[in-house]
Amino acid sequence: MIKSLRELQDFIKSKDNFTNFTNSSIVPDICKTEPCMLGVDEAGRGPVLGPMVYGIAYCPVNQTKVLQDLGCADSKALTEEKRDDIFTKMISEEDSLNNVGWIAEVISPNYISNSMYRRAKHSLNEVSMNSAIGLIKKAAESSANITEVYVDTVGPPEKYQAKLSEIFPNYKITVAKKADSLYPIVSAASIVAKVTRDHALKVWKFLEGLEIDQAGFGSGYPGDPVTKKFIREQIDHVFGYPMLVRFSWSTAELMLQEKAATCTFEDIDEPGSKKTNTKSISSFFAKPDEDKPRKRHKFFEERHLCVGNPFE
């Protein structure tokens, strides 16, 4: 269990920044017996750089004073220093340790982009919802007695709430826009997520060998001048961007089209489309026509490749 921001940074540095991972507190004993409320929020949904982090926090329903004493309010109105201060109290002060539990999932930019680009596309909303559902399940599996769940959302809350209610029928589910300003437990979750993301960026190590710290790439938001400069300059003609960049974002896509090598992909038949010149499976087992030469695949023709025997 981490007890300081330095230990948080050391924990993050020990993980591969191209994979997802979680970090969590010990479940307070009181949370195993008393009915608990749980809040869910994220940090880093919009940036073109860095991970997105989902956080949850939970505590007994009758212990809201602990959250108020911590200063959990609208996290977006808090400075980075104030969020660090509140999180430090959460992981070090006895009253918080005895009443408040939390979990954070760091979702890598590499995972986000690959999810959005794969053939069966996995949208950012789906990535977000799966993370939230997974964290709620993780809290329950760790013996926390969850009875109420409060979730912040940027989209229409009705569908999200219906989905969660279907998955967790025994919980009272509330999904609302700007929930972090309405419910202190969501604000606590937001602080967990934002502090984790802030420090993930501070200790980011480029596997590509770049010697750049956060001052060299900024906050990650597309409107940040430092981030804009990084996106414009740190692009390899062949390999594109380092894994810090969400290459599926339009900001990065447009720059790749302008400065990176052009890639040509073979067309993929859309589901339901009529396929032309499609052979039946049985045709592959038929006796070949020896008089008719076999046509070479265009992959080999375009690259002027031929069969050769190195032992001749």
TrEMBL record:
Q: Which Pfam families match?
A: RNase_HII (PF01351)
- According to the UniProt record, what class of enzyme is this? hydrolase
Q: EC number(s)?
A: 3.1.26.4
Q: Does the keyword Disulfide bond apply?
A: no
Catalysed reaction(s) here are: Endonucleolytic cleavage to 5'-phosphomonoester
What the entry lists under NCBIfam families is as follows: ribonuclease HII
Q: Matching SUPFAM superfamilies, A to Z? A: Ribonuclease H-like (SSF53098)
For the RNase H type-2 domain, which residue ranges apply?
35-261
Q: What does this protein do?
A: Catalytic subunit of RNase HII, an endonuclease that specifically degrades the RNA of RNA:DNA hybrids. Participates in DNA replication, possibly by mediating the removal of lagging-strand Okazaki fragment RNA primers during DNA replication. Mediates the excision of single ribonucleotides from DNA:RNA duplexes.
Name the needed cofactors.
Answer: Mg(2+); Mn(2+)
Cellular component, GO annotation = ribonuclease H2 complex
Q: Where does a divalent metal cation bind?
A: D41, E42, D152
Supply the alphabetized keyword list: Endonuclease, Hydrolase, Metal-binding, Nuclease
Cofactor-binding details, from the entry:
Manganese or magnesium. Binds 1 divalent metal ion per monomer in the absence of substrate. May bind a second metal ion after substrate binding.
User: What GO terms in the biological process aspect are recorded for it?
Assistant: DNA replication, removal of RNA primer; mismatch repair
> Under which name does UniProt file this protein?
Ribonuclease
* Family matches, as InterPro entries: RNase_H2_suA, RNase_HII/HIII, RNase_HII/HIII_dom, RNase_HII_hlx-loop-hlx_cap_dom, RNaseH-like_sf, RNaseH_sf
Q: Which GO terms describe its molecular function?
A: metal ion binding; RNA binding; RNA-DNA hybrid ribonuclease activity
UniProt keyword annotation of Metal-binding present: yes
State the similarity comment. Answer: Belongs to the RNase HII family. Eukaryotic subfamily.
